[in-house]
Amino acid sequence: MKILLVEDDKRLGESLSTGLQEEGFFVIWVNDGYQARDEIAQDQWDVFIFDVMLPGLSGVQLCEYVRFKGIKIPILMLSALGEPEDKIKALDTGADDYLVKPFHFNELISRLKALKRRADQYKEINRGEIICADLKFDFLKNRVERAGKVIELSQKEFKLLHFLLENKGSVVSRISIFQQVWQLPQDTYTNIIDVYISYLRNKIDSGYEQKLIRTIKGRGYMITDA
Q: Pick from 104, 110, 72, 97: which is nearest to 179 by CA?
């Protein structure tokens, strides 16, 4: 696994870099957001580890840059900020996981392996066009249309819609959505899924007679053209 580690704390950066290499990972460690941006553009990576607070570009800004460029590499954010609002902000800008300092090194290793495993599985998914009634979802082109009208979605809305469409006609639970879309073990943030389902409905179903996204009371959500 080839990892770009971006951490400005010298002692922590050296410790993580050494520990990860001893575990068999190839690691490049930089301590500045601008230098990290250059490294991102110059090489191929398996996982990014970004500290939130960095000189130059912050970890959140790096995350936004990566997703704006259409790079699908998993991102693990490190931060001393453990409030739900801080985690939500990082995840909403495209991070895949969030680890609060201080943390156990073995937990970091487990999360990195899980991110790589999910990424490998994700590559096996059919990324062609998915159709649901007059809704067209094209993963490769990062494009969503309904009745010929292009719909602009945020990164998380796109991932949520993709997950629903992968399970078209089946109920997906809130926990499974949180694990697959937010890639965290449980729904810690109360109504965050409800909020994003509402965002999707406003963009996908609002103004159309046929509603595709359904709430299955007590079970979760489903997208269907039936």
A: 97
Amino acid letter for position 2: K
Joined tokens for residue 115: 């991110």
Q: Which residues contact 226 (CB under 8 A, 6 or more apart)?
A: 169
Q: What is the pLDDT of residues 155-199, one digit of tens each?
A: 899 999 999 998 888 888 888 888 778 766 555 556 888 999 999
pTM (2 decimals)?
A: 0.57
Backbone φ and ψ for 59, nearest 5 degrees, come out as -60, -35
Percent composition of the chain: helix, strand, coil (DSSP 3-state, to 5): 40, 20, 35
* 61-97: pLDDT as tens digits: 999 998 888 788 899 999 888 777 878 888 888 889 9
CA distance 180 to 183: 5
- Residue 7: name the closest of 57, 105, 78 by CA: 78
Using CA atoms, how far apart are residues 130 and 152, in angstroms rounded to an integer?
A: 17
